[in-house]
Predict the 3D structure of the following.
Amino acid sequence: MTEHIPRPQGTPLTTDWFEGNVVNLSAAERRAATLPTRRTVKKEWQAAWLLRAITCIDLTTLAGDDTEGRVIRLCAKAKAPIRADLLEGLGLDSLTVGAVCVYPTMVPHAVKALGNSGIPVASVATGFPAGLTPLPIRLAEIRYAVEQGAREIDIVITREHVLTANWTALYDEIRAMREACGPAHMKAILATGDLRSLSNVYKASMVAMQAGSDFIKTSTGKEEVNATLPVSLTMVRALRDYRDLTGQIVGFKPAGGLKTAKDAMNWLILMKEELGTRFTMPDLFRIGASSMLGDIERQLEHHLTGRYSAANRHALA
């Protein structure tokens, strides 16, 4: 049985924990470049890692033309992420993704479609993706999504607070969002592609955790640069430092730009190398993706049959 991790509660804002920290870009890039080469996972072990990756996926649709029908199809895929014959061949009775992530107005459709599957609905909120609407409106959007049945909320921060080192404003904003989430778990999206330096990424990560975030997340998927291994390494190191300082454990979610089974393996390796196997489980690790699932299913079919099928044989919902 997986050990239960208490929900992080945050701390008072303590700038001494991060203000003097400077992240060495070259060192972070060198370390990140070694991660895919440090661990070779083949055959049945690779299949097991890919199955774990599926359980960590937040299957996502965040398009301007989202419809009830699209959300229903996505939820059907969430409940049966790989074909029944592949599931049987792998010796499994059932498998589901970590969550389904949608816009607030799509939450009721997702809740109804998922039924009693146990898969949580996650909703973006707070003026996603820019986060530049007035704070009262952003907080109201969180409350609306929770009232509609969202059990996880992906919030976006005001990047200006990071770029101007206004840590008090950033802390107060995220703390208010955490309170608005109530029982729903909160993932703080840092939009790292907009933060200009890894040092800013580290500092924003620490403030978000002090403010009570359940997860810290790299990107909205709408920035020019989304999840990268150096950025993820920086955030994971912040998670480790925060855990050592407080005893509180916060989860991590890379999102944007992760599309292949190889990407899934690389980020799982990052989590295992830096934080240990426990941080490869869905209560502490999520992957924001949708197209990745089709490639994982294709790789699993190759494992069972020795042949690669056409990508169009694996529905993406």
Remarks:
- The two ends are 31 Å apart (CA to CA).
